[in-house]
Every structure is written in C-alpha cells, then in structure tokens.
C-alpha cells in the first residue's frame, strides 16, 4: 500500500491544481458576492451603495427568472435525451460491419469540431431562415409553407442545434463502451433464443448504463452554460422563450450593465449549478465507483 | 442463423450508415460548398448543389477585411499554450489521485468538476477588473491563463479516469525493482499514460479552440483568436451567406482537419471512465 | 526529460510574449458596409502616416456595444478609437469618459457638420465624437410594384396610405411582401423603429414624472397597427428580422416597401448588390397628421476614450476618417453613391453627389425633420427620438423589444405585450430610482 512518503508526495502533486482552481473560484466569486449587495451600474460610477438583498429580490421576482429556469431544464434535458438516444442508435449502427466504416465515423464526429458560434450562425442563416434558408427551399419545393423555426419553435430549434454539436461526443463514448462488450455473451443469448430487442434491453442497455452516466455528467457541465448559440440565434427571444439562466445573467450584467443585479443573478446561478452538481454527483457516485 | 454476416445485410447497413453519416455531416459540407458560390447563388432557390460557377472571391473578401493568419496564430498559441500548461499541472494531480487515493480524493475531483458548472457571465466583470489591473486585457497570456483554468477540471478528470485503468501491480513491480519515486513516473507510468495524455491534449486543444465567451470578451486586437474573427460576420449588411460560409470554413477547417487526422488518438483515451 | 520540459516552457514563453508597437492604435468598429469600406481604404491613411499602425476590431453591433461599454466603464484601455452611437455620446461625454475633439486640425471644418447631428454630439460646447455617417429613416419602395397596383406614393405619406398600399401589393404566392419592418428584439433594432413610429401616433416612452406610458391609447394604436400590418403584409420570420435581414429581403426583391435607415438607400440602389436597384423610390417616413413623423435620427461616430495612451494618433485617424477628403477619396475609389452620408452640408450641396445619389434630398429632409430635443407630440423629460438618452434605456429598451418581438411571433396579443412592457419598465425605473 501507499507509504507515508508517497502520500505526502501525492498531496504535493495535487496542490498546484487544487490551489489554482480554488483561486479561480474564490477570488472572482467573492467579488461577485460583494457586488451582489451593491447598487453598482457600470454606466453610473460614483453611485455605488450597499443595498442589502434588493438585487436578489429583483432578480428572483423577475418573471423572466422562472421562464429561464424552465428553459434551462428543457434545454439540458432535451439535448441529453436526443444525444443519448441518438448516440446509442448511432453507436449500434457504427458497431456493425459495413463498407467505409472509417469514413462514416469521420463524418459523424465532425460536428464536434465546429465552433458553437459558427454552428449557430450556419444553422440560423443557411438552414433555418424562413426565406432564404435551405429548409425553406425544401418546404417550397414540396409545396409546403416554410416554417419560421426561430420564431415559432425557438427553443426546440436551439435544442436541435446544440444536440447536433454534442451527438458525436455521446456517440464516441457509447461506441467505445459498446465495443468493450463481450461478444460471447451476446452470442450465448442469441443461442438461447433471445431476440434483438431482448438482447438490447437485457444485455446492451445495462452494459451502456455507465457510459450514459458519463455522457450525462460531462454534457450537463457544458450544457448548463450554453450561451453562444442563444446569443447568435435568438438573443433569448422571442420574449423569453429561449432565455436560459446563463443568458439572463448576461442580459442583466452586460446589456443593462447592472453589475449588482447581474452579480446577484450570478450567485443564484452558482447556487443552482451546485444543486445540479450535488444531484449529479450522487447519481455518478452510485453508478460510477471511482 | 449463420454467424458470418450476409452480404445483403452488410449492404443494407452500409446504405443506412452512409445516409445517416452524410446527413449529420451535411451542414458542414453545405457551408464549405456555399463558400465557393457567389452571394446570389448562395441564396438561389432551388439551391444548386455542385453546378455553379466556383469562385474564390469570398475568401479574398474575407481576408481583405481581417487578417486571417494573425487570428489563426493567436488561436494556435492560445489553445496549445493553455493545453500544455494545463497538462503540466494536471498530470501530477491526476496521477496521485489515481494511484494514491485518499478519503477525500473523490470529493476533490467532484468539486473540481463542479467549478466548471459556474456560469462564466456571472464572474466576467470581476475577472475583467482583475485583468485590467494586472495588464492582462487583450494579451495572449491572459487568455492562456483563463482557458487553462476553465479546462483544468476536464483535463484532470480525463487523465484520472485514464490512469485508473493502468493496473497498479505494474507500479508495485517497479517499486520492488527499487525504482524510486521519480523514475517510477518517468519510466513506468508515463509510457503507459502517453495515449491518455495525447487524447486529453487533443480534446483540450479542440475545447480551447472553440471557446467563445472568454476569448471574445478579454481580447481586442492583439490577442484576438478565430472566435473573434467570426464575430464580425454575425450579420453584416446585405447578402452575406457566401462570405459567412467562407469565414466559417476558414475558422473551422484547421481544427476539423486536426481532429480527423488524430481521430484514433483522440478516441482512444476519450472514455471518461465509461468502460470498466 | 527536464531539459525537454524547460524547452517547452521557453517555447511557450516565447510564443506568449506580446509585441507592442509604440504607435499602434486599436479601433473598435461595427461590421456595416461603410465601416468595412473605411477599413479597406485605410491603406491611404497609413501611407500618409507611416508612423501609425491600425489594428481593427470589427464586431456585430450588439457585441461591439457591450465590449466598448465594458471597456470604457472599467477604464480597461483596450481601444484607442471607439465607434459609438448618438445614444452613448451625451451620456459618456457628460461623464468625461471621452476626449474633446474640438481640435481636429485647421482643415477639418467642423462648421460644415450638419447642425442636427453636431448638436447631439456636443455637450456644453465641446464636441466629444466626430460623426462618420448620419442617418434618419424613410420609406423605400418598389416603383414597379406600385405602378402595377395603380398606386402613387406621395412624398410625405400617411400611415393609413402605407397600410393600405402594403396590403394591396402583397402577393405571398410570389413571395412579394407589401412591407418589411424590423422585428428583431433590441433597443437599436425593433424599438428604434417602434419608438419612432409611436412618436407619430402621439405616444411617448415616459411622462414628465418618468412614468412609463405603454398603458396609453397612442401606444395601443401603434402596436395594433404594426402587428396587423405585419400579419397581413409582412414577410415570414419577421420577428428575427433586423436591419440586415430586411436589407437582404429588399435587395432580393421580396419587399414592396421598407421603412428603415436612410443609409440603406445606397445599398438598395447599387446594381452590384441589389436585384431591384433601378426600381426603388423614396418617401418621407409616414405620419398621422399630429406634427411628428415616424423617422429617427442616428449617427455612428468615432470617439477617443479618456484612458487612451495614444490619443494624438487616434485623433489624427479620426480627423482623416471623418474629413471632406475622406468623402472625396471614397467618391474617387468607389463612386459618389457610396460615400458615407448624413454628416456634412457640403456633401448635399455637391452636384456630383446629387446626381449620383437620387436619395440625397430625401435623406437630408429626413435628417432635418428629426428633432432629438423635442421628439414627441407631448412634452418628455428625455432627449432622443427613438431612444431615451438615460443609461438604463439599453436594458429596458431591449427587454421591451423582446416583448414586442414575442407579440410579432404570435406568442402574445398586443394587449398582453403592452401590459408586460408597462410592468417591466415600471419595475426597472423604480429600481433605478426614477419613480419614487
């Protein structure tokens, strides 16, 4: 087992990472916490004053807040469902032998490399635009009225854009997990007369549970702070239809330059993120003995 | 049923897989194609797929507006720099977490990951003020610092899960042979860890390359990477699909090509502990 | 291994080293046509001033505004020249965040600047920003479609004529939409249009006690007319259309009328970009006979933040970019129709410009018809035609813009939208301490 010497060395080797992250978290966070109790608008210097919980009161009673909370859940949940279901299907497909597997794999992972800003711009303008977009052209070709995606189904459209970007990640992780499955178990089950669906539910799915947990964890971390896709496509609208918590805090602090209000929002977002984190970690802890 | 896959089945799978693959890839392909069209052809309805007059004018136009290579170089420096520094800090940390776990290791790891859930907008103003006072605004080194810090949890987590898969017995054996602490790392652990480190490195370069919030907000002209390059195209006046496509292609192509070429290395370590 | 590490370290350090030239100025600018043209012509400036190097930061309007505001308010000092609008100049100038531009050289001729534009950039007799181009808004329409429908556009139309004509021209089966108006949320997007439109209906943002006025009849008429008109005669997806989107629609022949910035005139009449270049007519923005037309006043200007360490070089550049000589340079290189309009009287007196720009007189009349000091029928405590020049307006205007954009997308009724706008504006104004 590990000696006292190596334990001390271990603590020492962890120190830089821990100290850096602690600093990165605590310094700005304590400043944010301080600002959140201040009247502090960037455009009105000299007007700062201690105002207690007023910023929190305004942020939490903002009708946009609950809309944003709900949108955040829908966005994270929607993308997770699509990427995990789609990723599983794609992994099963790519695990089969067929001609040109290597190339198809390259095609499937490509969206992962695309900048969120670029993918949002491309989807918004070249595909979803109701007049000049490709989908509109398709609809016209079929004699259907073009759908105005970002006005009629804004949140769903954003979910699709984000899911497109994250599908490759889910596929890759699930595919790796799938390939580690002992093929003898599948063959044995087949010999026993289990159909494809039975085999999927009783052997493949349990085997993938761990990978699905990992995908959920990593993706949630990134999905909670989806921002560029919203800024580029809808600016949080129409109304508050696509405003998530991150975007709401952005609107407060960088559109209204209300640093006090934005900071209060930031602190609320941090608390919410931590709730999600605790929940996720519990789930991971059960599923993933590390 | 015969175990050998019938040719017919293979044919069906091939058709389905290629169709799905091309559909997923289509937005990128379409963008690349559009970048070679004229603005008028770019919005033509019905759209032309390949039969148009190919032109490089959009690339020339984009280049004349902003110097691509300066932005490109900044992107390379920032993403590679932050990844290398991140690895320097994370490899030792992940190593000790994986091989000398304490009671609190799991908590520390989870705490690290949870720092990534904080919305960056919430702390932009504090960071901006700190950077101003430190003279780090619009500097590559400032962006390297920020990107190192925001990606550090992912680096640690990824390395940790990879190191965990290295059997501890090998280390024990090395220790029996009288290898000391340092040579244990250098001669035993590192060679085994190289694939995981390579994979982590690639993933991080990709994440850092595509990071658009901090790079846009903390850079102006000197340090602006490709994310800022593309920000000027979000809706210029008049017809702009072809120019947008050209700028997008220029911003995405380097990282896409890198990703494709190193796909094997990237995928090998990209398990995040998904496989037992 | 150790040497390998230190080598890597050295390489990283070398790569990270930032090089700073003594006379490199950073210019933050917006990605619209005139600014991009200036960027292309900047070689003439650097040829004449070899000691000054220009670094451009070209951003989309909203991103630009956020970046420069953050920078100037925190005194970040990232930019030496900032492109800002007439909304920012009075607020920032009053705070002494900008350097005085009174001395831009003997040949600058500040008296040549259009009075209505110049007065908005002057605080207590000091000029704080130099106008690069100025604009009002007006009606651009398709003469061929009007002729086909048997209609004649008067020089100063009323809203009832516009509404009627828009519905007559519309032919959705051919993708011809009678009228294109802004719907994309933002205080500088849909709210610029709607606030100016509301002025012509006798509405105002605030009364003299800073109470929001969305619960009044004039606003109700404005929003109901706007929504009805866009539903019957507007293009699909209007709730995400801003200036640029509408410009693309008009240039591709999909709009019968478009009420928007006067600078658009040179784009829609440019045969290289516009399919309908030879078919465009112009008219003043519509009114309701109440004495105010629905046109706004705006200028993009160049200013030097007070923290700039290269103020002299920055001023030299601004003096060049907003000079008569620059206008002549654009005329020589790109033709008279493409010069930045709306800043100098001498331009409108120039016969070559009048000939090349059929929209020149209409632009000048529109600019002169706007009065930022008295924008509304009833008295108001703020200045600004399509905005109220208070720091809170950006946030409030954008939030209200979101509400009206949602109404345009069909997510709520006019009534609900107005109630919601009234509630949120009251909330913000109370928080900011205007309403006690």
From TrEMBL, chain A:
Membrane protein topology class: Multi-pass membrane protein
InterPro entries xref list: MetI-like (IPR000515), MetI-like_sf (IPR035906)
Pfam families according to UniProt: BPD_transp_1
Family: Belongs to the binding-protein-dependent transport system permease family.
Domain of life: Bacteria
Compartment annotation: Cell membrane
Keyword Cell membrane: yes
UniProt entry keywords in alphabetical sequence: Cell membrane, Membrane, Transmembrane, Transmembrane helix, Transport
Name of the protein this chain belongs to: Sugar ABC transporter permease
Domain annotation ABC transmembrane type-1: ranges: 69-280
Transmembrane parts of this sequence: 12-37, 64-94, 106-123, 149-175, 208-228, 264-284
Organism: Azospirillum oleiclasticum
Higher taxonomy: Bacteria, Pseudomonadati, Pseudomonadota, Alphaproteobacteria, Rhodospirillales
UniProtKB/TrEMBL annotation, chain B:
Keywords linked to the UniProt accession: Cell membrane, Membrane, Transmembrane, Transmembrane helix, Transport
Transmembrane parts of this sequence: 12-33, 72-96, 108-129, 141-163, 184-209, 240-261
Pfam family, one: BPD_transp_1
Subcellular location: Cell membrane
Domain ABC transmembrane type-1: 72-262
InterPro entries the record matches: BP-dep_ABC_trans_perm, MetI-like, MetI-like_sf
Mode of membrane association: Multi-pass membrane protein
Transmembrane helix in keyword set: yes
Family per record: Belongs to the binding-protein-dependent transport system permease family.
Protein name, UniProt field: Carbohydrate ABC transporter permease
TrEMBL record, chain C:
Cell compartments where the protein resides: Periplasm
Signal peptide residue numbers: 1-22
Coiled-coil ranges from the UniProt annotation: none
Keyword terms: Signal
SUPFAM superfamilies with a match to the protein in the record: Periplasmic binding protein-like II
Highest rank taxon of the organism: Bacteria
UniProt KW Hydrolase keyword: no
Assigned protein family: Belongs to the bacterial solute-binding protein 1 family.
InterPro entries for the chain: Bact_solute-bd_prot1, SBP
Species whose genome carries this gene: Azospirillum oleiclasticum
Lineage: Bacteria, Pseudomonadati, Pseudomonadota, Alphaproteobacteria, Rhodospirillales
UniProt key word Signal: yes
Protein name per Swiss-Prot or TrEMBL: Sugar ABC transporter substrate-binding protein
């Amino acid at each position: 087992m590990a000696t006292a010497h190596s334990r001390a060395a271990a603590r020492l080797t962890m120190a830089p990472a821990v100290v850096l992250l602690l600093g990165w978290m605590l310094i700005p966070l304590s400043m944010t916490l301080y600002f959140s109790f201040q009247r502090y608008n960037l455009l009105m210097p000299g007007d700062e004053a201690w105002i207690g919980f007023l910023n929190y009161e305004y942020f939490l009673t903002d009708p946009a807040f609950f809309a944003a909370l709900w949108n955040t859940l829908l966005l994270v949940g929607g993308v997770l469902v699509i990427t995990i279901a789609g990723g599983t299907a794609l992994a099963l497909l790519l695990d089969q032998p067929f001609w040109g597997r290597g190339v198809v794999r390259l095609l499937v992972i490509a969206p992962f490399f695309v900048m969120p800003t670029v993918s949002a711009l491309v989807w918004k303008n070249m595909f979803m635009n109701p007049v000049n977009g490709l989908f509109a052209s398709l609809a016209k070709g079929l004699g259907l009225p073009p759908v105005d995606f970002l006005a009629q189904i804004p949140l769903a459209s954003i979910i699709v854009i984000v899911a497109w970007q994250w599908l490759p990640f889910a596929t890759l992780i699930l595919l790796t997990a799938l390939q580690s499955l002992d093929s003898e178990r599948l063959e044995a089950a087949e010999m026993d007369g289990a159909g494809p669906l039975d085999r999927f539910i009783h052997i493949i799915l349990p085997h993938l549970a761990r990978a699905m947990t990992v995908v959920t964890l990593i993706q949630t971390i990134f999905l909670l702070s989806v921002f560029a896709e919203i800024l580029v496509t809808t600016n949080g609208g129409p109304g508050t239809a696509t405003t998530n918590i991150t975007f709401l805090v952005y609107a407060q602090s960088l559109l209204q330059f209300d640093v006090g209000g934005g900071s209060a929002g930031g602190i609320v977002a941090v608390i919410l993120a931590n709730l999600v984190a605790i929940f996720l970690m519990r789930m991971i802890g059960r599923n993933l003995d590390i | 049923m015969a175990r050998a896959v019938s040719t017919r089945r293979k044919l069906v799978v091939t058709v389905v897989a290629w169709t799905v693959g091309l559909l997923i890839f289509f937005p990128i392909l379409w963008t690349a194609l559009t970048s070679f069209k004229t603005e008028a052809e770019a919005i033509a309805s019905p759209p032309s797929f390949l039969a148009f007059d190919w032109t490089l004018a959009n690339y020339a136009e984009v280049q004349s507006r902003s110097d691509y290579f300066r932005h490109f170089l900044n992107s390379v420096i920032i993403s590679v720099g932050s990844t290398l520094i991140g690895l320097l800090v994370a490899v030792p940390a992940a190593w000790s977490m994986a091989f000398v776990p304490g009671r609190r290791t799991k908590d520390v790891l989870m705490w690290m990951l949870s720092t990534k859930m904080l919305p960056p907008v919430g702390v932009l103003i504090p960071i901006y003020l700190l950077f101003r006072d430190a003279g780090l605004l619009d500097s590559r080194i400032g962006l390297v610092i920020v990107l190192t810090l925001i990606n550090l949890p992912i680096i640690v987590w990824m390395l940790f899960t990879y190191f965990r898969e290295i059997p501890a017995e090998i280390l024990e054996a090395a220790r029996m042979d009288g290898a000391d602490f340092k040579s244990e790392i250098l001669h035993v652990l590192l060679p085994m860890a190289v694939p995981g480190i390579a994979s982590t490195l690639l993933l991080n370069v990709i994440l850092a390359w595509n990071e658009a919030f901090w790079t846009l907000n903390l850079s102006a002209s000197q340090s602006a990477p490709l994310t800022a390059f593309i920000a000027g195209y979000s809706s210029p006046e008049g017809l702009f699909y072809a120019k947008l496509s050209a700028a997008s292609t220029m911003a995405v192509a380097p990282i896409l090509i890198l990703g494709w070429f190193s796909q094997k290395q990237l995928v090998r370590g990209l398990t995040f502990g998904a496989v037992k | 291994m150790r040497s390998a590490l230190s080598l890597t370290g050295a390489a990283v350090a070398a790569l990270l080293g930032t090089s700073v030239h003594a006379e490199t100025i950073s210019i933050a600018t917006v990605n619209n046509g005139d600014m991009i043209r200036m960027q292309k012509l900047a070689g003439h400036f650097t040829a004449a001033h070899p000691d000054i190097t220009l670094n451009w930061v070209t951003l989309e309007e909203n991103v630009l505004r956020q970046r420069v505001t953050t920078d100037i308010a925190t005194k970040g000092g990232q930019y030496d020249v900032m492109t800002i609008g007439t909304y920012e100049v009075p607020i920032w100038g009053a705070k002494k965040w900008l350097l005085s531009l009174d001395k831009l050289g003997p040949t600058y001729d500040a008296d040549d600047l259009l009075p209505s534009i110049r007065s908005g950039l002057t605080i207590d007799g000091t000029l704080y920003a130099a106008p690069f181009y100025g604009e009002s808004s007006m009606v651009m329409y398709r003469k061929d479609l009007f002729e086909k429908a048997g209609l004649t556009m008067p020089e100063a139309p009323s809203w009832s004529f516009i509404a009627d004509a828009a519905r007559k021209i519309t032919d959705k089966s051919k993708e011809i939409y009678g009228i294109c108006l802004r719907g994309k949320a933002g205080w500088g997007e849909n709210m610029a249009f709607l606030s100016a439109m509301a002025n012509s209906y006798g509405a105002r943002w605030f009364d003299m006690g800073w109470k929001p006025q969305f619960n009044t009849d004039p606003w109700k008429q404005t929003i109901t007319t706007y929504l009805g008109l866009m539903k019957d005669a507007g293009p699909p997806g209007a709730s995400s259309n801003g200036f640029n989107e509408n410009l693309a629609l008009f240039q591709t022949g999909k709009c019968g009328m478009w009420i928007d910035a006067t600078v658009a005139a040179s784009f829609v009449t440019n045969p290289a970009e516009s399919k309908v270049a030879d078919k465009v007519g112009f008219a003043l923005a519509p009114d309701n006979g109440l004495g105010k037309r629905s046109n706004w006043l705006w200028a993009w200007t160049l200013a030097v933040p007070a923290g700039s360490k290269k103020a002299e070089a920055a001023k030299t550049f601004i003096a060049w970019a907003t000079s008569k000589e620059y206008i002549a340079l654009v005329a020589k290189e790109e033709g008279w129709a493409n010069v930045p309009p709306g800043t100098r009287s001498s331009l409108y007196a120039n016969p070559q410009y009048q000939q090349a720009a059929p929209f020149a007189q209409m632009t000048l009349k529109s600019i002169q018809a706007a009065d930022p000091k008295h924008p509304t029928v009833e008295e108001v405590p703020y200045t600004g035609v399509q905005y109220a020049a208070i720091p809170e307006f950006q946030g409030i205007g954008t939030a209200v813009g979101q509400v009206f954009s949602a109404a345009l997308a069909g997510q709520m009724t006019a009534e609900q939208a107005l109630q919601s706008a009234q509630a949120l504006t009251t909330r913000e104004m109370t928080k900011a301490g205007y309403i006690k």
